[in-house]
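Retro notes, item 3 of 5
We never archived the inputs for the zinc ion complex last cycle. Fixing that now. Sequence and ligand:
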Amino acid sequence: MRPFEPLERGRVGMYNCGPTVYDRQHIGNLYSYVVVDVLRRTLEYFDLGVKQVMNITDVGHIVDDADAGVDKMAIGAERAGKTPLQIADAYTRLFMADRHRLNILDPQVVPKATDHIPEMIALIERLIAKGNAYVAADGVYFDVTTFPGYGTRLNAEAPDQRIAGARVEVNENKRHPNDFALWRRAKAGDLQQWDSPWGRGNPGWHIECSAMSMKYLGETFDLHSGGEDHLFPHHECEIAQSEAATGKPFVRYWVHVRFLRVDSEKMAKSKGGFLTLDDVVAWGYDPLAFRLLALGAGYRTGLDFTREGMNAAQSRLERWRRTIGAAYAATKGRVAEPEGEHAITSEFRAALADDVNTPKALAAAEKALALAAISDTDEQERALWMLFDMDRVLGLSLRDAAATTDELAADERALFDQREGARRSGDYAKSDELRKELLERYGIQVKDTKDGTRWERVGRKGA
Ligand SMILES: [Zn+2]
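Structure as it came back at the time:
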């Protein structure tokens, strides 16, 4: 383990391998984006400016990731009787909606592979010019013998075995069985194809990520994430082709998220039958309970998804909301920053600084909740401040929990009733005045609807 130091002081460039949008994303994929979101929020919490880039793979790379097999986008398109781009748009929208339900922040740049074909072609031309790639009868290949240490950079565990064990396409056009495709010449019936110096065709998957990440983050950047299945070949191929082309280090830190397991088994999209966030919601869970479940597992250990685990996460979330709602009502919407850094906040920061240890960070949050539950408004005000501060990383919408508490304190109720009286007797000037007072004094927004008067806590200014 080594400390994280960005290339440029105070700024972090981060690239996340995005989804191939030929289908819904299952909760295993969503889990990996929750992890990445928490990482981004953690960096921001520590006052680093993060530029986050996540690609959308809307070019059909192959199903088994070993340059063989069927085009994923074509499968999706055929299934739905639509064009690949229609499919990609529809599933991209669903994916982004799922992310939003999980409070995953939008990356600043979300490049689509189909918008970056010229960048990929330029990178392939660079590799050919440098002698790292060659043109064959059916496309362009990266020559792995020109990149010492190919396939061994990310994981010291028996790299030779891993490479030998990976399935490779038997293809006489390749000089070496491990050579991987940068460009594939179009086959009859390919739905997606573009002109290139090597004839019509489509790009390899790995080259997409190298071209797009370097375009938006530079030839060397700080963080690159993906699932553990991306370690090899995808990320090793990205390293080989990027560093061969630029002669510079490609990525300073890699993050690989362990798989989510459902009842102890790996859930794989290519096997069919997988769980979506809609399934989780249909079972009666709040999407944020899934987020809380993910926070309760470290990214290095991976997440075990079980109904028991979800039940516990749902109850935990509800307990947090109740406690915060009650504390917020007791303090009448006041929160107060503790003088100096509170021990609980220090504990929270230390947990995050320790390789983003979210289970420990949640333990610190529980201490703040315990403080919020005692009947001392000074302590409660401080506890709420700490919880809302932590929520910048946790992303559990804890402020909403506070604002939706359905009880008015006695003095709030008195003012509210007084205003109702004024309105009913037709004294609209008085009624407006009291409405303003409710907002300014208690942070309560009153609305008159045809179903009667409604109110919600929106918080006082500066609260
Ligand atoms: Zn990628």
